[in-house]
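Archive entry. Fields below.
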Amino acid sequence: MAHFVTSKDIPADGEHIDKSKLAKPMMIFGGLAFVGLILSVYLLFFAGSYQEQSPSEAAAFITKPVADAPGGDIRGNYAYSWLFAFAYFVTLSFGGCFWLILHHVSNSGWGVSIRRLMENLATVFPWMAIIAIPFFFPQVQSKLFEWMNIHRETGFNYAAAKDAIGGGIFGSYAKDGLHASHDPHDHLLYVKYFYVNLNWWYVRMALYFVGLGGFVIWLKNKSVKQDTDDNPSAKSTLQLRYWAPAGLIMFGLSISFIAFDLLMALDYTWFSTMWGVCYFAGSVLNSMAVLILVLTWLRSKGYLKTVTSAEHYHIMGKLMFAFIVFWAYVNFSQFFLIWYANITEETRYFLLRNTEGWNVANIILVFGHFAVPFVFMLPHYMKRKPALACIFASYMLILHILDMYIIVIPERAPSLSTMNGFEPTLWFSGAFWGDILAFVTVGSFFMFILLRNLGKQSLYPNRDARILESANVSN
Amino acid sequence: MSTSAKRVYGYLAEYESASALYKAAEKVRDAGFKKWDCYSPFPIHGLDNAMGMKRSILPYLVFCGGTLGLITGFTLAYTTQVVIYPTVVQAKPANIFTTAAFFPILFELTILLSGFTTLFGVLGLMGLPRLNHPLFASKQFKRVTDDAFFIAVEARDPNFNADATRELLEEAGGTNIELVEEED
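PREDICTED_STRUCTURE:
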C-alpha cells in the first residue's frame, strides 16, 4: 500500500494544470470545431434541398416535396447527422451531471479527488445548447420531425380558412385544425396535443439547458469557491448536499424528456416507456468512461497523483461495469416487451432496425456492447490497471457511437424519401460522410469546452473536508 | 477437570487498537508465517494486504457456476422450444431466435447458480459450519466480539517456535500473550 496521504501532501492552492500543456490540444480541437461549425451551418441551412415554398407558405415554415432523387437532400441528410452527433456528445455531458449530483446526494467521500473532473464534464452540458441551436429552426425541424410539419401545415391551412394569415406560425391554430381533419394520424396528434405541440416544445428545450445547466454551474461554482475560501469550512459541502436531490429530479426529467423530444419524436406514431431510461443508461455508462480517460490523461501528465490511486480506478471501473449490465437490462426490457406483445404501433422501431444491414449492426451491438465487455470486465485487474481500464473505456465509447447511430440514422432514408414523395429507401450511401463531419465537429467542440473547463481552476477540491478520506480510499 | 491429553494450538496475543493490529500483522507477515489469523470486532480496511493474503479463488468458482446456469437455461429452452416441440406463436421464429423469449429464464438460472456457488463456496472455503474452534478455550478471546484485537499464530506453521514466536508477537506490541491448548 502506498504511503498514507496527509494534509501536508496537499498543496495549499491545489494543482493547476499547466496552460502550455493545454494550448496545443485546445488549438487543434478549437480549430476543428470552428471549421466544422461553419461547414455545418452551410450544410444545415444553405445546401441543396428538395423543398420549395411559396412566399406565404415560407412565412409559415411549410415545406413541400418536389420530385427529384431522394438521396440528394443534403440539408435533410445533414440534419440527421447533426442530431446523431448531438445525441452522442450530450449523453457524455449529461452523465457528468448525473455523477456529480449523485456524488453530492449520496454524501460520497471516495470520489472527492475526482469530483472536479465530474464538475468540468457536467458544465460542458450548458455549452451543448450551442450545438442544439439548429433544432430550434424550422428549416432543420422540417427534415427531422414530421409532426411539426403536420402541425404547421394544418395550423396554417386552418388559419387561412379563417382569414387569419400568420396565425399558424407557431401552430396556434394547429389544435383546431387537427381536430377538424379526418386523417386518423391527425387525430393521433390531436390527442397528444397537450404534450406534442410547438410552443411547449420550445419551452421544454429551453428548460433543459437553463434548468439543469444552471444547476450544475451553481454546483461547480460553489465547489470552486471553497478552494480559495479564507475561512475553510464544511458549509458549502453541506449546502451542496442539501440542494443536490432537487438536481437529481431535474436531471431525471431533463434526460428522459430530451430523449423523447429529440429522438423518440423522429417517428411521432411510435412510443416506448423504456426510452428515457435506455438513453440514461448509455449516458451514465459512457460518461464514466470519459472520466476514466480524462483521469488517466491527467495522471500521465503528472497531475492528481497524490490524491488518486488504483482504488479510484477500481471504483470507477465497477460503476462502469454496473452500468454495462444496466444498459443491457433496460435495452433488453424494451426489446423484449415489444417483441413479445407484437403490437403494430410498437414493432415499427425494431422492424426498421432489423432490416437488412441494420440487423447486423444490432447484433454487433448486443454482443459488442454487452456480452464481450461483461466477460472481459469481470476480473478485478481489468478495472484496477489504468491501461486496461482505458482500453475498455475507449471500447465502450466506440460502441456507444454505434448505439446512437442505430437510434437516429435508420430513420433518415425512409423519412426523407417518403416525406419528399418517393418510394421508401433504407439507406443513403453518400450521407455517411456527413455523419463523420458532424461527429468530428461536435466532438471537437465538446473536447474544446472540456479542456477549457479543466484549465480554469484546481484539478481537485483541495479544501474539501474529505479530500484525505478520498486520497486514502480503499475498497 | 478434564484428564484428556492436550495439544498446543498456538499463541494468542492481544493488541490495543486496530492500527496496532495492522502494524503487528505486517510484522507477522514479514516473518513468513502462513498459518495465522487476525481477529477483530469489525472489518479493517487493507488488513488483507497487511496480512499478505492471496485473493480468494471464489470469483472463479462463481463464474463457473454462473456459466453452468446459463448453459443449463439455454439447453432447457433450446431443447424444448426448438428440438423437441417447436411452437409457432404469432409467426415468431421457431429456431435459435426464439430464445429471446427465454432470456428471463437464462438470467434467473445464471443468478441462481452463481448465488448458490457463492454461498456454498464461501462456506466450503472457510470450513464452515463447524461446532467449535480451539480459540474458544481462551477466556480473554471472548472479548473479540466486543473491544479486543487479537493475532493467533498456529503451532502447525513450520516457522513456529515456542520462544521466537512469542518474542515476535511481544515485539510487535502484543500483550496478554497466551499459549492456547486444545483438547485432543
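CURATOR_NOTE: Chain B touches chain A at residues 45-46, 49-50, 55, 59, 63, 90, 92, 100-101, 103 (CB under 8 Å).
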